[in-house]
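== Fold encoding ==
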Amino acid sequence: MLLDIRNLTIFADTPQGEVRVLDRVSLQVAEGEIHTLVGESGSGKSLVARAIMGFVNSNWRIQADRLWFRGTDLLNLTAKQRREIIGVDIAMIFQDPIAYLDPNATVIEQLREAIPAADLDVPFFQRRAARDKYAAQLLVRMGIRDHQDVLASYPFELSDGVAQKVMIATALAHRPYLLIADEPTTTMEPVMRAQIYKLLAQLHARYQMSILMITQDLATIMPETSRITTIYCGQVMESGPLQSMLTTPQHPYTDALSYTSLFQSERLKPRQKLATLAGLEPTLQHMPIGCRLGPRCPNAQRKCVQRPELEQVGKHQLYCHYPISVKENAS
């Protein structure tokens, strides 16, 4: 297993006291797999990515039974050891590339820093020219036209789509084992979004690179995805293979996500309202006890005030006292 996370919990200090923002999150990514983490905005998806990368706030306290990458416990590494892994074996692309690219450096300058000297089989006095050549090759692989003009540009001079491709090129300069894509196409128009997903699929096929994709909409999931995990308010709801998660979800939350996005045109009659979860997502200071979906769940009963244990239903792993198939069989 390339990435193995077991019971990851993050506590955050707030003026109202300590809050458990992630609650025993478990997630596994295999070698060469695309695994997609899906949840509403504020569900804790990006917190999982930040915990993996080590981008933690000073007021966070992290606990985990296991946070392993290629057999190495990331929580027990020193800052120097962590840096040797992050950015080399693990890379991350963000949803707002302009905010994470250096505004004071040109694209070629930033790519030069990202390209490791160990990958350049040339004498040291030829490394600059070799880096420039490799940087141009990276942009060509990203499908960027006029790549020489882009190399000489500053990030604010680029469109969102080109800036995102530059960020992907920077992340792939080391050819990482794991690429974390945190909603990389949220601000893009549909055509550019499709281009980015096609590019990621090509890179996955070419390098057999594992990808942890983070999104809030089932409709944007890449067809090459192997597994889907849904998360709500810092708790994992369900995990399973792509097709069965889309067609026969077992958790009410996954079912609600599928109704409101991917299959709404096929499952709804003309002028029929969308089937949505009642209520609103709770604030951090007022998290429900037990299953956090309870107050909004159509299947909720008194037992849901207790945190459900991991259950296997077919090929799915889920945390639910009353899975959909169990309710259907009972009725």
